[in-house]
Amino acid sequence: MGDEPKSGFTRRDLVRGAMVGAVAAGVAGKVPAAPQTVLGPGPVDIQLDVNGKLLRLSIEPRVVLADALRERLGLTGTKIACSRGACGACTVLLDGDPACSCLLLAAEVQGRKITTIEGLAGDGRLAPIQEAFVAADALQCGYCTSGMIVSCKALLDRNPHPTRDEIRHAVSGNLCRCGTYPHVFEAVERAAGVKRARQEEPETGIASAPLSPSTRLRSDPRVDPATADALEEA
């Protein structure tokens, strides 16, 4: 049996043939890559559709939309806080949907409709959701307010009569460190018609109670001499 001739096709030949076939198939099926447009690194001319107006500006491709709106176009209603999409202060509408403008390159949103807080009002009058925020006193420091209002506007555009849970979900990406959420919920309900903001004008005065005799300022012998000396020197 040791004299029998061995077969001319071995396992090594099988593996080698499979590899050659795979390489040949890959080369034959390769599709040339489409040419890519390279922007930068210097400033490039772009055109943005912001609040219904086509605006031209020259910026570096690295500039995010939030910076382009604030620093290049003067639309400072859009706020920048975290710069990583965690707080929602920079929220704008992109084709009607809320988006964090600190995460978007300005150059990549060309051809899309951008709406900022400045674009909600019209004909010299605030939008209903803005009026509702005033009526419901839904702001304190105000830094998150523009992003919060934009998110609420997007909610009402797609759902004119949201539930309280739907309102909570809509603003879950907007961080308010002052804790105005109950007033925000009320503002959205007012704008949605659950409560009429325009029927209840917000108070413009500051409520104050008259001082009782026990709370009135009284003479203090420890302070009066120093006060008198200061007045004489003045």
Description:
With 234 residues, the protein is α+β, with helices and mostly antiparallel strands. Among the domains are: 40-119, Beta-grasp domain (Ubiquitin-like (UB roll)); 123-198, DNA polymerase, domain 1, CATH 1.10.150. The protein has seven helices and five strands, in the order αββαβββααααα. It has helices at residues 11-28, 65-72, 128-135, 145-158, 164-170, 181-191, 224-233, and strands spanning 44-50, 53-59, 91-94, 97-100, 113-115. It has a five-stranded mixed β-sheet, with helices on both faces. β1 (44-50) and β2 form a beta hairpin. α3 crosses α6. It starts with 10 loop residues before the first helix and ends with a helix. Residues 197-212 have low confidence and may be disordered.
Task: Please name the defining characteristics of this protein.
alpha+beta; 7 helices; single chain; Ubiquitin-like (UB roll); 32% helix; 234 residues
CATH topology (level 3) name of the domain at 40-119: Ubiquitin-like (UB roll)
Helical run tally: 7
Most strands sheet: 5 strands, mixed
- How far from one another are the termini? 127 Å
The percent range for helix content is 25-40%
Can I get a quick summary?
With 234 residues, the chain is α+β, with helices and mostly antiparallel strands. Helices cover 32% and strands 11% of the residues.
